[in-house]
Design a protein that fits this description.
The complex is a heterodimer of chains A (156) and B (266). Chain A is α/β, with parallel strands linked by helices and 156 residues long. In chain A, 32% of the residues lie in helices and 31% in strands. Classes of the chains: A alpha/beta (156), B mainly alpha (266).
């Protein structure tokens, strides 16, 4: 009887350690907070081209992450991409004429949305649309424009 | 003459292939007979506790030590490469992803095959060689339920827990080396990790992998033991085959599972 009790204690400790390890992987290592934290408010913005933006890409203002991209859809009527982002509740004062642009983190980094605050008195609310947007820079287009501009310049 | 050699070679090949298929079929039938015995274990948890102790708890030391050193070496090696690109901030996510997705499940399963699988096969094989299994049958005790099912259940329960412990210890080991030895910012290690490791895509898929490996390794071990020739040589061969076959099965399955889980990540 005593032996089986010791055995059960050991097995209990083993199972507890395994579960604790799983818990650590979930809480400390992975991004469980971005699933649990359902709060915040949603704003959307329409872009001509989102480049390599993906769902869960960060939304930053002045370099600080204030939210994440929660949804990307294609709007067949305006031929634009509608990006919905969830912004944490604590950043609830964003001027209504805030502009959004798709930027790249460093030369090779991931795409993110950079917000630039405007000067309006009223602030963005849940479900609002950011009107002033700037699409992602597509390198091929940029090079094309550069070459086109050069050849036109030399022709004059 | 020439024709004769060809037919002999073909016959050997056919014999070998049929033998393999037969073993595979026997293994599947064996599993089919063991699985109905699993629910009955709930009525006798003592049996499973005993096996979980023998399989899981006794494998803990090697898994913890291996996890610690794998994590530390990983941090050390990756740092040397990543510092050239100024990417030492990404050390945390890279260590965590490689442990959680790959090394945790796979290395633990390989260690488990060597530590617990071989012991299982030898134990059951010896039970068969000393006719303990047939005397159980004489007493109308089904050895599949009494002997095999608790071991299978214990193995399936233990491996996912062991591999979670392996990953957690490895990530902590990597943290110790990264911050203590290499001077990576400790906050960057954890926060970058949290930003890049996904709960479902990475952690949950790693757990699924280790559950699959747990089933396969324990299954091979108990089957090889149960199927062993009842001689000391047969037991020895069953033990060897357990380690070799389950290691190969783990590596092969890992490729397939990885292709299914992470292959279409764009």
């Amino acid at each position: 009887m005593r032996q089986s009790r010791a055995l059960e204690i050991w097995v209990g400790a083993f199972v507890a350690a395994g579960l604790a390890a799983l818990l650590m992987l979930a809480m400390k290592v992975s991004n469980i907070t971005s699933y649990v934290q359902g709060g915040g408010y949603r704003v959307s913005a329409a872009f001509e081209n989102i480049g390599g933006l993906t769902v869960r890409a960060p939304v930053r203002i002045a370099g600080v992450r204030i939210g994440r991209v929660s949804d990307i859809r294609y709007d067949g009527e305006s031929f634009q991409a509608i990006v919905t982002m969830r912004i944490d509740d604590q950043y609830d004062y964003l001027p209504a004429d805030t502009s959004a642009s798709i930027l790249t983190d460093g030369l090779l980094g991931e795409n993110y949305i950079g917000l630039e605050p405007g000067g309006a008195e009223e602030s963005l609310k849940d479900g609002d649309r950011i009107e002033i947007t700037q699409s992602a820079m597509v390198l091929e287009k940029l090079i094309g424009q550069f070459l086109f501009g050069r050849s036109k310049g030399s022709g004059d | 003459m020439n024709q004769r050699i060809t037919t002999t070679v073909l016959q050997r090949l056919g014999h070998w292939a049929l033998g393999r298929l037969q073993r595979l079929g026997r293994g599947n039938l064996f599993l089919l007979h063991v699985v109905p015995g699993l629910p009955g274990l709930l009525a006798r948890p003592g049996l499973m506790v005993q096996q979980t102790f023998a399989i899981g708890v006794l494998s803990l030391p090697i898994v913890v030590v291996a996890g610690l050193f794998v994590g530390m070496v990983l941090a050390l090696q990756l740092y040397n490469t990543m510092v050239d690109f100024g990417a030492e901030q990404s050390l945390g996510p890279v260590v965590a992803l490689s442990l959680v997705r790959e090394l945790g499940p796979v290395v633990t399963a390989l260690l488990f095959a060597g530590r617990a699988g071989s012991a299982l096969a030898a134990e059951i094989g010896l039970m068969k060689a000393t006719e303990q299994l047939s005397s159980m049958e004489m007493m109308a005790v089904d050895p599949l339920r009494r002997v095999v099912a608790p071991r299978l259940a214990g193995g399936i329960l233990s491996l996912p827990l062991l591999s979670a412990i392996f990953s957690a210890v490895g990530i902590s080991g990597g943290f110790l080396v990264a911050t203590g030895l290499l001077g990576v910012d400790s906050n960057a290690y954890w926060s970058q990790m949290r930003a890049n490791v996904d709960l479902f895509d990475d952690v949950a898929n790693g757990v699924i992998k280790s559950v699959v490996f747990g089933v396969v390794v324990t299954w091979i071990a108990v089957f090889e033991g149960y199927d062993a020739a009842p001689t000391s040589e047969g037991v020895a061969r069953a033990t060897t085959r357990t380690v070799v076959n389950s290691s190969l099965a783990v590596l092969g399955l890992d490729f397939i599972l990885t292709a299914l889980m992470f292959g279409d990540n764009t």
